[in-house]
Amino acid sequence: MSPDQLVDELAAGIAAQQRRALARGITLVESSRVADRSRSDALVERLSTHEPRALRIGISGTPGVGKSTFIEAFGMDRIEQGQSLAVLAVDPSSQISGGSILGDKTRMERLARNDAAFIRPSPSGGNLGGVARRTREAITLCEAAGFDSIIIETVGVGQSEVAVEAMVDLFILLLAPGGGDDLQGIKRGVMELADIIVINKADGEMARQAQTTASDYAHALSLMRPKRSWWTPQVVTSSARDASIANVIEQVERFRVLGTDNGEIQRSRSEQAKEWFASELALGWHDLVRSDVELARSIAELERRVTSGERTPSSAAREVLQQLTSRQPT
């Protein structure tokens, strides 16, 4: 099959909401092979003309807070309301072996078996922030497949919240019930990114503590400047064991309606597209530098001299840039 035929087949299949074609398309955009890059770009370009209707939701939280259980409860509620959703779950890659856990399909069994849901675990590949490098392209393909909601679940490794916030409409931070010490342990910057803070596992013996924790965070948020002029961050409690997931659904829907009516979601997406362009330029520049054999040797030697203390990192970096720019036509 020729490259053009492959792109045509995948584009048609994704537009027809075929799960197999969507999975194959995401595999293509995630490929690190140079030969796949042009086909991937062509596929994304073809499908990006579809007007997106999905709400992009970022969900993050520390391991053990119950992200997968929460997402399954959230997703099943949406499906019962006649909607569909895709879950892009980014798992951490080992810096030693390169392997990742990729266990979200086993943790979301009901969603994985439902035809209205699509779950795609992807390794972060060691990418900064625990978000796969091609997550944005995967979002575009899921939008073209007609999903009503697209959830990006991150690994909660510190920078992941910042990375995912730059590619979604709504950012949800999941926290476990806890006391004042836990509140002190949450970075102010992370809280400032959140549109909705969910105190999860708010059931049984933890219900009362969850309410106290929610009050603590609501007070903390009241002392911060909201990131949006039109939305006040909300703190709600939730549990996958009862109907309290409706607390979250209500706030998500209110955000969607407000942001759509006032045009702020679309404006934010335009800004994100600009940031995506800048990010791709930076990554492409890095790849270009590393692919130059002569320059790669020079970089390796400069890295050795930086490591030994013979050169400072800043001066060595400037030398690389000078070497690169001196080769460009004037």
3D architecture notes:
By secondary structure, this protein is an alpha/beta fold. It has 3 domains: 1-49, Single alpha-helices involved in coiled-coils or other helix-helix interfaces (Up-down Bundle); 51-261, Rossmann fold, CATH 3.40.50; 276-326, no CATH class. 55% of the residues lie in helices and 12% in strands. It is built from 15 helices and 7 strands. It has a 7-stranded parallel beta sheet, sandwiched between helices. The chain starts with a helix and ends with a helix. Mean pLDDT is 85; it is low at 93-103 and 126-130.
Topology, element by element:
Elements: H1 3-15, H2 19-30, H3 34-47, E1 55-60, H4 67-80, E2 85-91, H5 104-107, H6 109-113, E3 117-123, H7 135-144, E4 149-153, H8 160-165, E5 170-175, H9 180-185, H10 188-193, E6 196-199, H11 207-222, E7 234-237, H12 245-261, H13 264-291, H14 293-308, H15 313-326
What's the short version?
By secondary structure, the chain is an alpha/beta fold. 55% of the residues lie in helices and 12% in strands. The two termini are 41 Å apart.
Summarize the main sheet.
Answer: 7 strands, parallel
Please estimate the helix content. 40-55%
The CATH class name of the largest domain reads Alpha Beta
Give the number of DSSP strands: 7
Main attributes of the structure:
3 domains, Rossmann fold, 7-stranded parallel β-sheet, Single alpha-helices involved in coiled-coils or other helix-helix interfaces, 15 helices, 330 residues
